[in-house]
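request received
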Amino acid sequence: MKILHTSDWHLGRALLGQKRHAEFEAFLDWLTATVCNERVDVLLVTGDIFDSGTPGNRDQQMYFTFLARMTATCCRHVVVVAGNHDSPSFLAAPGDLLRSLSIHVTGSAGSPEDEVLVLRNTRNAPELIVCAVPYLRDRDIRTVEAGESVDDKERKLVQGIRAHYERVAALAVRRREELAAEAGGRLPIVGTGHLFAAGGKTVEGDGVRELYVGSLLHVSASIFPKSFDYLALGHLHLPQTVGGHEHIRYSGSPLPMGFGEAGQQKSVCLVEVAHDTPVRVRLLPVPVFRHLERIRGDWEHIARRIGELKEAGSPVWLEIVYTGHAVMGDLGRQVDAAVSGSNLRVCRTDNLNARQAALHSVHPGETLDDLSVTDVFRRCLRAHNVPKEQHAELLRTYGEALAALDDPQPHSGDRV
Ligand SMILES: [Mn+2]
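response:
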């Protein structure tokens, strides 16, 4: 039996204000084709289907259209669990309707009976048990007591998560025993989850949000039941195993969520389970639907790279991070001029030089009152490592700005 595990679609998420509908649609088309080509029997989507608890109409349409297309493929069952970005009640609202199409949705944690699914083949024989555990919210697993410390809170959260998995796994094992004769062998058990496992890798700007307010809770792989043949996790956006276990995995997000992830290979997990052999996992690389690139460096480097990309003619989305020493007050305009006439799109320019702290260089015992405004400006130039040859010109311009401020005659318009 073949299971395809994916998570963290974040339908509706924009990238620095740029809508990404075309990419999401391309991904769902690719996923549909992959399910057919690989003859997938079960699809698991382990949380963060939507980026928001109140997804837009177009995002909802994309999701339901995809599910409708799944019912017309070889894929017999779809299991969807909510992540921390999803609204549990929104996701679960069409649950009864979807169940009639063999699409199982778990919004929030409830009784183990609701989460332990027995999936049956076309001959109505049991073929797989899925423990469809969603993101476990604080209120679902922990009772709050007055005066508890942060440590108490974390300990109770971990205990709550462990206890929930133990209860669900115990029921799954019981079901397996009950169904052994009917199934004609040992039924595989697959679990799901949406949480931060200890040792997990993230990258800056990948949009992974803290799970429990005021707590950096990471759970160790040891809390997961040994009876799971495979555990399909969501939440982290880089594909990875947990604690060196091949059968405990994050599929990762199919699209890079930020420029920090640009160039990372994205994938979904194709899991083959059989009655008596260990699972086999193959990563299927997700094609790049939109090239993202961060260009970081001095102006010479930025201009050269923009030139190369222009020549290649590919429609890349760019983030420009200027780190040069020379002051570039008009970075935005320079970048616009460099990309004009191409199909490059600049999503953000960041001038690190201009942002870097200017007033680090106050000496001990010295206050701003001891310095003239021109002294402060000179120190800014030094703190930014502005080349000496630019100083005279910058001091003169600064002097003009000061003179304008001292001028009692208001200039045309407002000065605020
Ligand atoms: Mn996520």
